[in-house]
Specification:
four-stranded mixed sheet, alpha+beta, single chain, Immunoglobulin-like
Length: 127
């Protein structure tokens, strides 16, 4: 009986080693992406400004408390005092992002890439 347990332990140990090496070498990458907690992810930094009805972007003012949403997801944030909303660990893909401020809505498209920070700028009140 002890010999059977030892054989099973050796087989399990070898399977774990092979699995670890395979994971490290990327043998399972196409399948791991199907598991949500292993999906490739990146970040999105959204900057929101008040253009003050000019075409000169050097005098734009950051806007706080703008609602920023990544459509087709449940991800929504408010901008901070610097007009920034940072979304971390967003699954890789193409998204439409919406900024809502004082009943004005702007949308723009963005692509999230693996281990990168995508940046998107919204300017309200531009001429």
């Amino acid at each position: 009986m002890a010999e059977k347990a030892m054989v099973v332990a050796i087989i399990v140990g070898v399977a774990l080693i092979i699995g670890g090496v395979g994971y490290y070498l990327g043998w399972f990458d196409e399948y791991i992406d199907l598991i949500p907690w292993f999906a490739d992810k990146g970040d999105l930094k959204v900057l929101v400004y008040d253009g003050q009805n000019t075409t000169d972007t050097t005098d734009d003012v950051p806007i706080a408390n703008v609602t920023v949403s990544i459509l087709s997801t449940e991800l929504t944030k408010k901008t901070d005092n610097n007009g920034t909303a940072l979304f971390t660990d967003v699954e890789v893909g193409d998204y439409e992002v919406q900024a809502d401020w004082n009943s004005s809505i702007l949308t723009n498209n963005v692509t999230i890439e693996k281990d990168k920070v995508a940046e998107l700028i919204f300017r309200f009140n531009t001429s």
